[in-house]
Amino acid sequence: MANSQPTTLESGGKGSGQAIFPLWWGIAACLAIMGVILLLAPYSIHINFVEDKGSSWYFWQLPDPTFWTHFTAWAGYAFHQVTIWGIIYAAQRQNLKYTKGLHPINAIALGTNLFFVALHILQTKIWYDGLAPDVPLASSMGSVILMLVMIMIMEHQRRGLLLGQPVPIPFIKDVGRVLREYHGYYFAWAIIYTFWFHPIETTLGHLVGTLYVLLLLLQGSLFYTRNHLNRWWTLALETIVVIHAVLVALMTADQGIEQAAKFLFAFAAIFIITQMHGVSFKLWQRYTFLLLWIAGVLWFYHDRWELAIRILKAPMMEYTLVLLLTALIWLVFLFPQRLLRRYQKITEENEDIG
């Protein structure tokens, strides 16, 4: 998460002074934490929640919050956020090489995240509320969506955007370089903010969402390691979000099946158009994914074609955001640098003439 550009690699293991860190160890630890969460349940059996007020209302919050419910959530979040930002900054200053093992600062990041995960579980058990009562519901969802958009820009040079082909935007490569260097700070915010936004709960949607965030925290702690660059692992992290979206739709929407299908086919379309081209799927496998998607759409929407258009909403939004964010980053960060370099060049030329 601190930096995804593998400028220099070393093997780790024998002769490097570092033991190899198998990725499955981290995944197993995340699953173990989920087991602890289940063992400590229930978290809200004593709470009489306010009646659901619609799509913009977050149901899982106390009807009568207190100073301490607000304070403990915000204090825990703030300390977690600032600490991880500090760790990312320290890692970037160390000029680390990519390795199969863990750098000391990776162990610090893992330990820090583990501590704050435990703290949030305890905070939920005692005070319950997360950040949700004080901020819009859309802020949590939007932070993750924007993170996925940034990943598409960062990966554009390697896997393209449309069926493995790059889009003809002359400055998208430079924007991707900027994001690869600094994305860790935004990703850390999106993940930690989302983690503290929700209380710890044991509904299926909450459990999958919490597991997803734990896996993202794991990935964010493995900066400057080979695991951080594992393409199958990063693809899994991109696509697990569809499982969460489908489950939440099934649980919360009045038309749960239709909402779940919309999310499933929409995110599957993004996978087929862009994401699957970043790993070594064979051509027949890619065609199989496409045919399964077409067959699924035909089967589900054969008697309700007017609803099929909804599938396009999420992909169109995400690809539009890719273009808009690329343009915004170039305009705010890269264009002024270009103007400054141009001004300095003109100044130097004038001085030489003088």
Secondary structure: number of strands:
0
So what's the overall shape?
globular
- The number of helices is 13
Percent of residues in helices: 55-70%
Structural category? mainly alpha
Biggest sheet, open or closed, and with what strands and sense? none
Write the layout of secondary structure elements.
Layout: H1 23-39, H2 67-93, H3 104-126, H4 137-154, H5 156-159, H6 172-197, H7 204-221, H8 226-229, H9 231-252, H10 256-273, H11 283-301, H12 305-308, H13 313-353
Helix pairs in contact: 1-7, 2-3, 2-6, 3-7, 4-6, 4-13, 6-7, 6-13, 7-9, 9-10, 10-11
Report what the structure shows.
With 354 residues, this protein is an all-alpha fold. It contains 13 helices and no strands. It has helices at residues 23-39, 67-93, 104-126, 137-154, 156-159, 172-197, 204-221, 226-229, 231-252, 256-273, 283-301, 305-308, 313-353. Helix 1 (23-39) runs antiparallel to helix 7.
Short recap of the structure:
The chain has 354 residues and is an all-alpha fold. It has helices at residues 23-39, 67-93, 104-126, 137-154, 156-159, 172-197, 204-221, 226-229, 231-252, 256-273, 283-301, 305-308, 313-353.
